[in-house]
Amino acid sequence: MKSYLEMTRAELLEEKAQTEQELEKIKALSLHLNLTRGKPSPLQLDLSMDMYDLISSKSVLRTQAGTDCRNYGSLDGIDEAKRLMAGFMGCEQEQVIVHGNASLSIMYDTIARSMTHGVAGGVPWCRLDKVKFLCPVPGYDRHFAITEFFGIEMINIPMHEDGPDMDFIEKLVSQDEAVKGIWCVPKYSNPQGITYSDETVRRFAALKPAASDFRIYWDNAYAVHDLYEDERDELLPILPECEKAGNPDMVYMFCSTSKVTFSGAGISAMGMSHANRERMLKQMSVQTIGHDKIKQWVHTRYLKDMDGVRAHMAKHAALIRPKFEAVDDILSREIAPRGIGTWIKPKGGYFICFHALEGCAKAIVAKAKEAGIELTAAGAPFPYGIDPKDSIIRIAPTFPDLEEMKQAAAVFACCVKSASLEKLLNN
Amino acid sequence: MKSYLEMTRAELLEEKAQTEQELEKIKALSLHLNLTRGKPSPLQLDLSMDMYDLISSKSVLRTQAGTDCRNYGSLDGIDEAKRLMAGFMGCEQEQVIVHGNASLSIMYDTIARSMTHGVAGGVPWCRLDKVKFLCPVPGYDRHFAITEFFGIEMINIPMHEDGPDMDFIEKLVSQDEAVKGIWCVPKYSNPQGITYSDETVRRFAALKPAASDFRIYWDNAYAVHDLYEDERDELLPILPECEKAGNPDMVYMFCSTSKVTFSGAGISAMGMSHANRERMLKQMSVQTIGHDKIKQWVHTRYLKDMDGVRAHMAKHAALIRPKFEAVDDILSREIAPRGIGTWIKPKGGYFICFHALEGCAKAIVAKAKEAGIELTAAGAPFPYGIDPKDSIIRIAPTFPDLEEMKQAAAVFACCVKSASLEKLLNN
Description:
The first copy, chain A, has 13 helices and 13 strands. By secondary structure, chain A is of the alpha/beta class. In chain A, helix 11 (306-334) packs across helix 13.
């Protein structure tokens, strides 16, 4: 097969005619498939249902230390849950606060408190003329929604295969006191599936920020979400590295079981230095008496420890790996030889990130919609929804079943061809 | 028995000698009882344990509308839970947003968003020189902690037997644009157990605030927490009254099942006008994808409807009523005839509020502590922890068992006598 980039105009026109025929056939099928969000499939959710066989009217809902999980209290969570979530983040149990059903809410609350009360005795951000966050792109749209909501200026940071551009980050962080944070998804990044290298993690830990209230917002959402048991990415735990570098307070880590047990009905946690933790708990005590300890109890009884988590995640992997591979196969066959798109084959996480020819992403998403495939809006993985090159499309293979995913990937490939041909013919 | 206020100095001295002997005997018992917080007892928590027999690996966790409760989504909660919580608040299902495990967090978040983003298009409060809240006193310490945390000035409003002083409220609210809110616990108020009269509710609904972003923060924490089935207080639902008065947006209502099922592991909700609700959901969408729908599912299956809730609450009442009555009996016998304290015998809620002679509350709490009884700090039910008359003590009878409660009440009465005698003798 010949790359479109090497084709003559006549060849491109012929290809276009064929592709349009293909698209017409697809439209006649009246498909309705949704690839927009990183949601687990019903079969994945079925995997954790036996958790509810561990709790009944006969259960003694007490912790090992004797705390009654049914009553008020334990602002930082029960010890069993702190221990479990420490394993997700690669830190000590004493560095953890267990929260409610969503790590997103912890991140939002952390930013919200920084706005009204500042970070570690610093000036509340709402009193500053300008607050800036660094945003590795493409990234997670809900991170950017939080910073946008609070009027924080976002600066795009390019991503490389070993993590974000550290030269650029080091420069901005050390020179500009208005830079107060950076959003990171360090393992199987959303949406590219990139895991930060040890070198990248160490450079993060060694940052010398101009602002004393600068923090790294380390959202380890896919900490245990490997697709392959024998070929998993290993992320260097950042908190110990920050400690070694003399920057123990510089990182806030977040994680959850949203894609381990139930989405929106799991538990979440934050990991951080002792000093950060004490400050956080003091502020949190105004907001809540404590999070749901019964859910913490049942989650820790069910998942037990990191071995239990890994064993459980292997079941998830068995369900979703074929879908990721189907997308990879179809793109490898239909797109790669035509030279009209690239992607990283991820070893985990929830997404495949497609890099189209520049200026084609919006057109591809629009064509897919016409063909019955709902994709995440082009631009969504960027601050303010603006992809400067209009080239990134996030594909979420987990929710549809395998046959649907194969069909959707084929339609997607056809739309990529069609949009790419239009671009090349109009140039 | 003679009132202390009518005793001669010699009689008071004789009484003091006797009381001190009593106190010495009590101290010799080395008691350790805690009456500080409004926590349900383990037996109360046992009442709801069969809720967990309604969920197992075999459960189909779908709503009637077909939503999978195990996956992301439903920012405002599932319909079944909205319907249930509407019953708590006396409003329509369409006026409800179901939240997480704590109404306290909803209140905090509502204030926090008002600080950073304003209310309904108004100026964010963090940009104003002064924001004031009205605080009926005595009141709920955690309300005051929220407003204090955000630097909001709190103004004490006296409570009467039919609710807060409406003349004073009408004056302040209509004249001062800096007054942005008022904290209310309208039924079985914390700590006095007062239910606002229909007239009070109607005057609230008809307020004419100077500030367009003024809101009534209506924390109906004890909506269904009656002690007597045949003699319950009825609270007029405020939202319909606000609608009639042309002020539909003026009230935010809050409630939860924290003291119905499990404390910190129940569900909570907010009720409000359509316009308020739309604004709230838009802001909430940045903070969370949705709250725990599995918990909503199991709660609605368990409690079913308001009849189910009333039947369940009757079981709570049967457990806690004897404790409230024991306190009332002992105070009626030991304190009332001596003229050294008053209280309202509550028909529901979680507290008995003792009004000691002026200047005696701190001394009573200190004496109780020496005698092995931990009481809520004197002053706690007031903004900034300052009781201007040093006379209010909140007693929380629910957590200890009946015998402990009787013992604690007797010790408390002895401490009241002792502190009152010291005051009278020093005058």
